[in-house]
Design a protein that fits this description.
The complex is a heterodimer of chains A (259) and B (351). Chain A is built from 11 helices and no strands. By secondary structure, chain A is an all-alpha fold. The chains are: A mainly alpha (259), B alpha+beta (351).
Chain lengths: 259, 351
């Protein structure tokens, strides 16, 4: 009985979640300019198109720049918020946590409109800065959450031990808390990066033609013409995400091994 | 010469009082254990000494200097935790060097002192290991080295052995005692294990419900407990409730079917408890000589442990008691009729 449940749930999950994604990917190698089965032959041609024809490489570079910037800003903001929140009392912690996580709850369309309007008013529309800032706001709560998890998992006696040996609050933070919470910061940084890298809604509102990111390029070429390069880009993005999951897994194993 | 003076400490958590008028005077170089069941306040007292908790009233002085409100990092007390609290991201060397680096000791001296401490706890081979690569006993010895390397004025040990198995515990007790004698630092240990307390300490403060019941050497606690709680908590004991009644030959204890002539005693008649340790009772089948008291009893249970046997006896007069008996020529079976014999001078009056 339990075996039947196991196989049914497994195949249902596979059919529903994974198959629709996998079915598209072989078309990246299809020797036809239509996204249609049956495939007409195998080719690497579309990869060449992606690597050499606009807008793909320029968009990729934009995405990398924006995601890196958003990651750095997100780690700083989210990390500091988490450290500060840990120092607060029980109720303070609850309230501050809710506040710092709130950007996740607000629909990204609303955020996009609000930020486009706000940045326009301030005269910083166009270019990378608005995108980086907006994506930092989206990434910071993720950093906040993962750093909080990391800090909460620390044995409070370590801090006390350091205190009993004469270390000041700042010294304890620098030599004990921060190094031990590093996996949390790294996980958060990865999340912030990938969030920005995949983000399309807010970017649509804020990107100028020069700062167009990869998801936007994907989105607009989907509207213009359905061609295999889109699938190539999708395949590449999926590979990046898989890599990300592997790295995350490694990180978690390492921090678990320490305890 | 008292070095650490704890004077009338009260501690409240909201409405609950955790410590009641606790006073202790601990000499320099003494090995003192705070012994008590969980909830007795011993850990609270240790946290207050370490500076992690404040007091509601009372003072603590060290060599005449008031340290009641000092922060933990300015007290210069070593601290050993139940869970070791070694820094997992640092090697054994860096763990032990930590307090010295905080104090900006010169590099060469740090190295020398770390090595000297590791020699003392016999872990020199493990200097470059990470804590996770050491056993529990080794980790606790590293923690000990780390807490002692900066020559603290006081070493506080918070149930340091409770995570270790029995054999390791006994080894570490001896080692701790030896280190204490080598260094001459004042040690204050917290435990609920009365054997551990008796093995290591110069004096033991028995705590119960936030109060100090008695502060004495292990011998005095065991032979002359001042309260029923101490008699019960430290070692096995049989306690009879009754009263002292005056007679022609001095006072006699009467209660629970027992009559023990105590001779002329320097105390007033009235209600009292009488304690009798299981090893002071001999189990006989023939009536004993004069001066000893024999109580007829039946064996409820006998637990053989090779060198001797622990008997649970039901006295014909009612109460159940426990007694150690010799086991050289076998043990008395369950239900056997025996005599529980003891001398009146081995009894202790409590209260």
């Amino acid at each position: 009985m339990s075996r039947a449940i196991y196989w049914i749930s497994l195949s249902a999950g596979f059919l529903f979640l994974v198959l629709p994604l996998l079915v598209v990917l072989p078309l990246a190698f299809n020797d036809s300019s239509f996204l249609n089965y049956p495939m007409e032959g195998f080719t690497w041609r579309w990869f060449g198109v992606v690597f050499h024809q606009p807008p793909w490489m320029a968009a990729l570079m934009n995405s990398l720049k924006v995601a890196s910037g958003a990651m750095v800003a997100g780690v700083l903001i989210g990390g500091l918020a988490a450290v500060g929140t840990m120092l607060a009392g029980r109720w303070g912690r609850l309230v501050l946590s809710a506040l710092f996580i709130s950007p996740i709850v607000i629909p990204s369309v609303v955020l996009g409109v609000a930020m486009a309007y706000a940045f326009g008013r301030m005269g910083v529309s166009g270019g990378y800065l608005p995108l980086v800032l907006a994506h930092a706001i989206l990434g910071a709560p993720l950093v906040f959450l993962s750093v909080m998890t990391s800090l909460r998992g620390l044995d409070p006696e370590l801090e006390r031990a350091a205190a009993s040996m004469g270390a000041s609050r700042w010294h304890r933070f620098r030599t004990v808390t921060l190094p031990l919470a590093a996996p949390g910061f790294l996980t958060g940084a990865l999340f912030a990066f990938i969030t920005s890298f995949d983000e399309v809604v807010v970017a649509l509102f804020l990107a100028s033609p020069q700062s167009q990111t990869l998801p936007i390029a994907l989105f607009s070429s989907l509207r213009d013409r359905l061609e295999p390069p889109i699938v190539v880009v999708a395949l590449l993005l999926s590979l990046v995400s898989c890599l990300f999951i592997v790295v995350l897994n490694r990180l978690q194993k390492r921090s678990n091994g320490r305890r | 010469m008292a070095s650490l003076e704890i004077r009338s400490i009260d501690k409240f958590y909201g409405q609950t009082q955790a410590l009641f008028d606790v006073s202790l005077s601990i000499g320099k170089g003494e090995f003192v254990t705070l012994l008590g069941p969980s909830g007795s306040g011993k850990t609270t007292l240790l946290k207050i000494l370490a500076g992690f908790e404040g007091v509601s009233s009372g003072t603590i002085t060290l060599d005449g200097r008031d340290i009641t409100t000092l922060l933990p990092e300015t007290r210069n007390f070593g601290l050993v935790f139940q869970g070791y609290a070694l820094f997992p991201h640092m090697s054994v060397r860096d763990n032990i060097a930590y307090p010295l680096k905080v104090r900006r000791v010169a590099k060469g001296e740090i190295d020398a002192r770390v090595r000297a401490m590791l020699d003392l706890v016999q872990l020199a081979r493990f200097i470059d290991r990470k804590p996770s690569e050491l056993s529990g006993g080794q980790q606790q010895r590293v923690a000990l080295a780390r807490a002692l390397v900066f020559k603290p004025d006081l070493l506080l040990l918070d149930e340091p052995m409770s995570a270790l198995d029995k054999k390791l515990r006994v080894d570490l007790q001896q080692e701790l005692r030896a280190i204490h004698q080598t260094l001459g630092t004042t040690f204050i240990n917290v435990t609920h294990d009365q054997e551990e307390a008796m093995h290591m300490s110069d004096r033991i403060a028995v705590m119960n419900h936030g109060r100090i019941e008695q502060f004495d050497s292990a011998f005095t606690l065991y032979r002359r407990p001042q309260s029923r709680f101490v008699a019960d908590f430290v070692g096995k004991s049989n306690i009879f409730t009754g009263e002292l009644v005056p007679g022609s030959a001095g006072l006699t204890f009467r209660g629970e079917g027992l009559a023990v002539p105590l001779g002329p005693a320097d105390r007033a008649p009235g209600k009292v408890d009488l304690m009798l340790r299981p090893e002071d009772i001999a189990i006989e089948t023939d009536p004993p000589g004069p001066g000893r008291i024999a109580l007829p009893a039946r064996v409820l249970q006998a637990t053989y442990s090779g060198d001797r046997a622990l008997y649970a006896l039901k006295l014909d007069a009612g109460p159940e008691i426990s007694a150690w008996g010799t086991a050289r020529s076998g043990i008395h079976p369950e239900g056997a009729a025996v005599l529980a014999c003891f001398a009146p001078q081995d009894c202790t009056l409590i209260g």
